[in-house]
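Hey, resending since the last one bounced:
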Amino acid sequence: MATDSETKEALDGLKEAILRYDAEAARKAAQIIVDRGINPVLALKEAFGETANVLHERFDSGECYLPHLVMAGDAMTAASEILESAVARDSVAAKKIVVIGTVEADLHSVGKNIVAMMLRSGGFEVHDLGVDVKSSMFISRAKETNADIIALSSLLTTTRPYQREVIEELESLGLRERFKVMVGGGPITPEWAKQIGADGYGADAMEGLEVAKRLTGLSS
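The C-alpha cells again:
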C-alpha cells in the first residue's frame, strides 16, 4: 500500500503528464498508480478533475486552444485505459447503458470525457457520441442501444437550449418515459435541470456517477 507521500507523488505525476499533453507519460503515470495499489477511482476523480479545471482556465484565458484540449483528452484516455482496467466491475451496473455526448454547436470534450470515464469505471456500458451531437443522434443511438440514460454535456451558455431540445424531442416522439436524462457542464445548474425537466444533474464526474446509479436504481 502506498504511503500518503507516494500517493501524492503518483497523482501529481499523472496531472503533470496530462497538462503537458503527453499521452505516453500519462499512460506510464497511470501504471505507477496501479502498481502502487492506489485507488484508481481516486486517481480518476482527483487527477482528472483538477486537470480539467486547469485546462478550462487555460482555454478561457487564451493560454491554450482547441488542439491542446484534444491532446489533453488523448492523454486522459491513455491513462483511463489503465485505471479503468483496475477498477472492480459491478456486474449489475454493467448491464446499464449510458449514451453521452456534448450537445450541438459545442466542441468542448474534456469534462464530458471525464464523466464518461467515471461511468465506465463504475461499471456502466458507455456509448460516447463525441461533440457537436445533434438531438436526433442522441435519441437514435439511445433507441439503438436500448440505453437507460441519455447524458447531455454543455460548456457554453449558448448551447444549453439543445439540452432542452433533446427532452422536447423525446416528448414529441412519445419516448420521454423510456429514457432518463441527466445534464451537466460549466453553465448548467440544478435550477436549469429542473426547468427543462431533466431527471438528474451532476456538478462533476463523481456526482455524475452517483446520479447515474440513482437513476438506474443502483443506489438510493
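Residues 40-61 form the longest helix (22 residues).

Sorry for the duplicate.
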